[in-house]
Backbone:
C-alpha cells in the first residue's frame, strides 16, 4: 500500500511547482485555482524573493498549492492512488486537499489566515524553537517540565530529533540543561513558537474559520498529527486542525501507524525531501520518494 505525505513549513523554495504548471494540465488547474483564490501567489512561488516567500502567511499557502499540484500531476500521469495520507503540521491541510475533503481554494485561504494568526499570536522575539538531537523524547519532556516558564514538545520528528517550543528564555534554559545531558541543540530560525500553548490565540481565531468550512468525505484515509491515528469521521477534521496549532506534531507515531496499517511505499508531494528523510530515519530501509518536479515524478512512477 502507498501513503501520500505532504511537508510543512521550511520546505519552500523559489520556483516550486513551476515545472508541474508547465507540463501537467491537472497541476496547472490546481495552481490556477489557488492563484484565483490568492492573487499573486504564483508569482511569489516562482520569483520570490525568498525572504518574502518564507514569511509564515506566505509559505503556508505556497506549500499547500505546491503539494496539491504535485499530487494532481502524479494522478494524471497514472500514479496509483494512495490508501493513506499524512501531512506534517501544515501538510495536513494539503492531505485534505489531495483527498478531496477540501478544495484548493478553501485550503489556501484557510492557511493564509492560519499563518497570519500564528505570526501575530506572540510578539517577535518573545518565543523560540530549538531542535534537540541525540536524546529520547522522554528525557527532553522531563527537562521541559522541570524548566520554569513555557517550554513544550513541539515536533516529534524522528526517534532522536525533537523540537521544543515556548518562551525564549525557557527554551534557552531547557536547551542548556539538555546540552549538559549530551544533546546537540540547533536553534531554529522561526518567526514564532509554533505548536505550543503560546499559540492558543491563533488556534481560537482559526477555529472560527474552520467552523465555517465544509469538509467532505476524503478519498483516502488521513492519519492526523494530533492523534497519530486515522481520521474516522470527517466531522472531526476541523477540531483536530484547531488542536494541531497548540499540540505537538506526532510524526514518529504517525509513521509507525502507517506502517502498522500496511503501508510499504511512501511518496512525498510538493517541495523538498524532508519527510522522505524522516521516514527513512524512523523505519530504516523503506521505499520512500519525493515528487518535486516532472523528473522525480517519472522516477516515482
Residues:
Amino acid at each position: 500500500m502507498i501513503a501520500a505525505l505532504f511537508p510543512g513549513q521550511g520546505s519552500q523554495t523559489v520556483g516550486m511547482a513551476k515545472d508541474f504548471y508547465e507540463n501537467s494540465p491537472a497541476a496547472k488547474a490546481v495552481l490556477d485555482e489557488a492563484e484565483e483564490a490568492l492573487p499573486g501567489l504564483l508569482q511569489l512561488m516562482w520569483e520570490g524573493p525568498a525572504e518574502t516567500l518564507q514569511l509564515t502567511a506566505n509559505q503556508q499557502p505556497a506549500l499547500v498549492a505546491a503539494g496539491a499540484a504535485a499530487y494532481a500531476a502524479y494522478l494524471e500521469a497514472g500514479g496509483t492512488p494512495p490508501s493513506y495520507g499524512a501531512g506534517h503540521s501544515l501538510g495536513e491541510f494539503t492531505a485534505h486537499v489531495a483527498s478531496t475533503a477540501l478544495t484548493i481554494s478553501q485550503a489556501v485561504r484557510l492557511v493564509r489566515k492560519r499563518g497570519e494568526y500564528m505570526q501575530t499570536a506572540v510578539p517577535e522575539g518573545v518565543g523560540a524553537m530549538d531542535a534537540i538531537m541525540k536524546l529520547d523524547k522522554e528525557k527532553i519532556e522531563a527537562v521541559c517540565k522541570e524548566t520554569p516558564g513555557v517550554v513544550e514538545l513541539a515536533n516529534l520528528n524522528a526517534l532522536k530529533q525533537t523540537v521544543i517550543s515556548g518562551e525564549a528564555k525557557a527554551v534557552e534554559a531547557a536547551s542548556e540543561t539538555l546540552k549538559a545531558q549530551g544533546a546537540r541543540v540547533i536553534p531554529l530560525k522561526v518567526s514564532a513558537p509554533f505548536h505550543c500553548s503560546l499559540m492558543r490565540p491563533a488556534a481560537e481565531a482559526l477555529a472560527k474559520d474552520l467552523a465555517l468550512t465544509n469538509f467532505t468525505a476524503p478519498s483516502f484515509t488521513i492519519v492526523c498529527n494530533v492523534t497519530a491515528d486515522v481520521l474516522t469521521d470527517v466531522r472531526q477534521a476541523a477540531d483536530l486542525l484547531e488542536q494541531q496549532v497548540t499540540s505537538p506534531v506526532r510524526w514518529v507515531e504517525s509513521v509507525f501507524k502507517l506502517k502498522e496499517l500496511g503501508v510499504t511505499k511512501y511518496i512525498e508531494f510538493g517541495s523538498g525531501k524532508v519527510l522522505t528523510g524522516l521516514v527513512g530515519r524512523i523505519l530504516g530501509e523503506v521505499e520512500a520518494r519525493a515528487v518535486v518536479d516532472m523528473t522525480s515524478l517519472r522516477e516515482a512512477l
Q: What stands out?
A: The mean pLDDT is 96. The longest strand covers residues 151-158. The CA atoms of residues 24 and 132 lie 40 Å apart.
